Fold:
Amino acid sequence: MTIHSTHPFADADPDPARRFRGRVGGAVTLWTAGDEHDRAGLTVTSLMVALGPEPCVLALLDPDSDLLDTLRSTGQGVIQLLTWADRQLAESFAGTAPAPGGPFRQAPFVAESHGPRLASATTWAGVRLAGEREVGWSVEVSAVLEQVVVGDEDDPLLHRRGRFLRVS
Structure:
C-alpha cells in the first residue's frame, strides 16, 4: 500500500466548466411523476423559476432518466424542496445510495393530481410539461407551475461542490 500526498480520485485535467457549475450550487429538489403503478423521481439542483403570466420552472434533466420518460408520458409532475433531513432520500433518487425496494419505499408519498408528493414536503409545486430541448449533455425542460404550496422553510437542503450543506 502506498500513501499519496494527493487525492486518489483527483482528475488530472479538471473540466473548468464542471468546476464552475459545482461552485454555483443551489437548493435540492426532488422531481416526481407518474402514479402508484408507474412512477419515477430524480434529485435536481440545476433549475430556475421564470415569472410571468404562466410562471415556469426551467430545469436540466438527465436524458436517460426514468423521470424524463415519465414526464413525457404523463405530461405532468411534482417538484418538492428537500430539507436537511431528506439528504439520504436525495442520494437514493440520485442513484448514488442504496435504496432497498426502490427510492419510493424510503419515505411516504401522497398521490396528488400531478403525481406523487413526498408527504413531509412543505413547499412543492404541481407542474405541466410545456417543452424541452437538448442543451449540452442534458435536456432542458420547461414546466408550467399549475399548483404551488409554500410552507415553512425549516433547514433547507443545499448542494455545492458535490456536498450537501446546511444554511448556517
The chain has a mean pLDDT of 92. The chain has one domain: 26-165.
